[in-house]
């Protein structure tokens, strides 16, 4: 229960994944918001595996490895900010159900999480706290906890996205609001990039 409550607090707290899922819900509707939630959830898999297998220790001890991954993440967040600001067709009433669009949403979501080394270090510090010392199946236990974490992440992100999608019709009917939202999302991606750069 303690693990689930802690996980809930962490997933509900807005971050890159929530921002991206909400953006997808507003720009492309409910289907895209769920696809984005799937992508963000898949994006944490490498971090969980790195923490479980001990690869996070490499990022912790190697400044070069951490800095390289960090600045790739910064560059991608800034790219997302630029793309959001430049995309004049993002918030329209048209439905976008093309498979290619879904693939693009998932790729962007995965990369947003994948290129954030802080997630690996977070899981490296977080997961072992809920596995007692000397547990005979510690790796299996961490895999089980990781499964719960991913499930809760998907549910929370999908809820954010579906709520945003429900507000979509009200938003796209107001051009001034659309422009303001585009700038807010672009600014938020840029701010997250700056925060990661300074970490």
Query: What is the CA-based Rg, rounded?
Result: 18 Å
Total beta-strand segments? 0
> What is the number of helices?
11
How much of the residues is beta strand, in percent? under 5%
Number of domains: 1
Distance between the termini: 31 Å
Mean pLDDT: 79
Low-pLDDT runs: 90-100
Global morphology: globular
- How would you sum up the major sheet? none
Order of helix and strand elements from N to C terminus: HHHHHHHHHHH
Specify the structural class. Answer: mainly alpha
Helix content: over 70%
Written description of the protein model:
The protein is built from eleven helices and no strands. Helix 2 (about 15-30) runs antiparallel to helix 7 (about 100-115), helix 2 (about 15-30) packs parallel to helix 9 (about 140-165) and helix 4 runs antiparallel to helix 9 (about 140-165). About 40% of the residues are buried. It has helices at about 1-10, 15-30, 30-45, 45-55, 55-60, 65-85, 100-115, 115-125, 140-165, 170, 175-195. The two termini are about 30 Å apart. The protein is globular, with a radius of gyration of 18 Å. About 80% of the residues lie in helices and about 0% in strands. The longest helix is centred in the C-terminal third of the chain and has 29 residues, at about 140-165. The protein has about 200 residues and is an all-alpha fold. The protein has one domain (about 15-85, about 95-195).
Give a short summary of the structure:
This protein has 199 residues and is an all-alpha fold. The chain contains 11 helices and no strands.
Question: Key terms for this structure?
Answer:
single chain, 199 residues, 80% helix
């Amino acid at each position: 229960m303690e693990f689930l409550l802690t996980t809930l607090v962490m997933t509900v707290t807005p971050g890159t994944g929530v921002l991206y899922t909400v953006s997808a819900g507003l720009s492309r509707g409910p289907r895209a918001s769920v696809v984005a939630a799937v992508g963000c959830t898949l994006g944490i898999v490498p971090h969980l595996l790195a923490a479980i297998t001990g690869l996070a220790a490499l990022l912790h001890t190697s400044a070069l490895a951490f800095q390289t991954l960090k600045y790739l993440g910064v560059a991608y967040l800034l790219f997302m900010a630029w793309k959001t600001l430049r995309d004049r067709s993002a918030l329209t009433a048209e439905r976008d159900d093309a498979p290619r669009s879904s693939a693009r949403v998932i790729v962007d979501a995965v990369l947003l999480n994948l290129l954030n080394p802080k997630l690996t270090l977070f899981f490296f510090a977080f997961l072992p706290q809920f596995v007692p010392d000397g547990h005979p199946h510690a790796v299996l236990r961490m895999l089980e906890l990781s499964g719960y974490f991913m499930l809760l992440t998907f549910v929370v992100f999908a809820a954010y996205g579906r709520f945003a999608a429900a507000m979509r019709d009200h938003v796209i009917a107001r051009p001034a609001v659309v422009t303001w939202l585009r700038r807010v999302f672009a600014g938020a991606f840029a701010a997250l990039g700056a925060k990661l750069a300074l970490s």
